[in-house]
Design a protein that fits this description.
Blueprint: H1 7-14, H2 26-50, H3 67-83, H4 88-105, H5 107-123, H6 145-167
Helix pairs in contact: 2-3, 2-6, 3-4, 3-6, 4-5
Length: 168
């Protein structure tokens, strides 16, 4: 019976025995880089939309582009390019990406809109009402479909660039 070697077996057999070896996990690096770049870009998209610099946008959810979409799409594309589109890891990453992107543009977007309405209602309550002094709810939770698509395209680009750099 012939023995089948996987890519993991090939990489393990060719790995250096040096203690200074730093493994390169391209899908993970692509995902983190896509997330960081998407969060950084929110400073500039906020300036373009509102004509003000707001560095706090780097730590907020919501906004353009969707860092959630950028992260999961970079992960899926990098896994597809690294391990092949027929791998189980790629299938898991694609399903995860679909769920995250649907959630960002659907459920979380509507939860943010509901929070906005609730904040408006609370602001209109008389001062003696017990709920008039509660802290406002966060209303920048989700993304518009355009923000999700922009994040997804950013993630794909980051993964492709990462793989091309490794091939050079």
């Amino acid at each position: 019976m012939d023995e089948v070697m996987t890519m993991a077996d090939v990489r393990a057999s060719t790995r250096s025995t040096s203690s200074f070896y730093l493994p390169s996990n391209t899908p993970l690096l692509s995902a983190f880089l896509a997330f960081a770049l998407a969060q950084f870009l929110k400073i500039f998209t906020t300036w373009y939309k509102e004509r003000r610099w707001d560095s706090k946008r780097m730590l907020d959810s919501g906004g353009m582009p969707s860092s959630h979409s950028a992260t999961v799409s970079a992960l899926a594309v990098a896994i597809g390019l690294h391990e092949g589109t027929g791998s189980s890891a790629f299938a898991i990453a694609v399903v995860l990406s679909c769920i995250v992107m649907y959630d960002a543009s659907g459920i979380r977007l509507h939860a943010g809109r509901q929070a906005e309405l609730l904040n408006q209602i609370v602001c209109e309550l008389p001062p003696e009402h017990p709920l008039s002094n509660i802290r406002p709810l966060r209303d920048s939770l989700g993304h518009t479909p355009l923000q999700v698509v922009a994040g997804g395209l950013l993630g794909c680009a980051i993964a492709l660039i990462g793989i091309l750099i490794l091939l050079l």
